[in-house]
């Protein structure tokens, strides 16, 4: 197999367009995972068994089943119950819900690491639970878990090729389409691999800088 530069330059713009879709799916899915993960973590820490037990069981079920199966279920099964969305929306919801079960555990670890004396001091000062959580607990719980959350962002980005199974035109799907039309897979798949590598490295650098910034703020 010989590398064809003309063909590589021909497919590059299409793959860059697909890269935008891929990054959008990863970022939206990550935001869903961050928000939903916090809600799951708080629910599982709740003293109300009617809330913590079902949420915990559902989270374990989602975390213990393959993401691809969940995407198929959302895309092919839910429409039978009258719930139908576009492939892109279905994909980001699938990514977000799946990874929310992982970020929830990260949040739980961060919250559990905050000394209980912090809660007790806030209660002694008659702070409201919301003010205590938002202004005292979260600023201490989040910085240590930022690197792990950042790793999940990269993991979500690398899992976006699974969205091709539900017809989302992300990078891998476009590369497969281009390759099937010309029977030249070397160039598009290599470019896709390089684009994944570049974006992942950029993300890792940005996450590292954020971690350092939060570390400086904590020392101040």
UniProtKB/TrEMBL annotation:
Membrane topology, record value: Multi-pass membrane protein
GO molecular function, a single term: transmembrane transporter activity
Cellular compartment(s): Cell inner membrane; Cell membrane
Broad class of where this protein is predominantly found: membrane
Source species, domain of life: Bacteria
GO biological process, one term: amino acid transport
Cited InterPro entries: AA_ABC_transptr_permease_3TM, ArtM/GltK/GlnP/TcyL/YhdX-like, Ectoine_EhuD, MetI-like, MetI-like_sf
Cross-referenced SUPFAM superfamilies: MetI-like (SSF161098)
Residues annotated as transmembrane: 20-42, 71-97, 189-210
PROSITE patterns the UniProt entry points to: ABC_TM1
Keywords: Amino-acid transport, Cell membrane, Membrane, Transmembrane, Transmembrane helix, Transport
All residue ranges annotated as the ABC transmembrane type-1 domain in the record: 19-207
Cellular component terms per the entry's GO annotation: ATP-binding cassette (ABC) transporter complex
Pfam families per record: BPD_transp_1
rRNA processing recorded as keyword: no
Coiled coil (UniProt feature): none
Similarity field: Belongs to the binding-protein-dependent transport system permease family. HisMQ subfamily.
Name the record gives this protein: Ectoine/hydroxyectoine ABC transporter permease subunit EhuD
Organism expressing this protein natively: Skermanella aerolata
């Amino acid at each position: 197999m010989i590398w064809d530069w003309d063909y590589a330059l021909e497919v590059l713009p299409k793959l860059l367009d697909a890269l935008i879709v891929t990054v959008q799916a990863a970022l939206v899915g990550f935001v869903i995972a961050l928000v939903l993960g916090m809600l799951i973590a708080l629910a599982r820490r709740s003293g109300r068994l009617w809330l913590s037990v079902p949420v915990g069981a559902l989270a374990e079920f989602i975390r213990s089943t393959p993401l691809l199966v969940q995407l198929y279920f959302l895309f092919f099964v839910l429409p039978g119950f009258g719930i139908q969305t576009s492939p892109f929306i279905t994909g980001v919801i699938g990514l977000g819900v799946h990874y929310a079960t992982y970020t929830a555990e990260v949040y739980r670890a961060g919250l559990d690491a905050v000394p209980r004396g912090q809660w007790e001091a806030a209660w002694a000062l008659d702070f409201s639970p919301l003010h205590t959580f938002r202004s005292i607990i979260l600023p201490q719980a989040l910085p240590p878990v930022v690197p792990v959350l950042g790793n999940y962002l990269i993991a979500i980005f690398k899992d976006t090729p699974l969205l091709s199974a539900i017809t989302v035109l992300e990078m891998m799907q476009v590369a497969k389409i281009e390759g099937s039309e010309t029977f030249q897979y070397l160039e598009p798949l290599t470019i896709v691999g390089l684009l994944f590598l570049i974006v992942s490295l950029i993300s890792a650098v940005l996450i590292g800088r954020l971690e350092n910034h939060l570390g400086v703020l904590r020392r101040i």
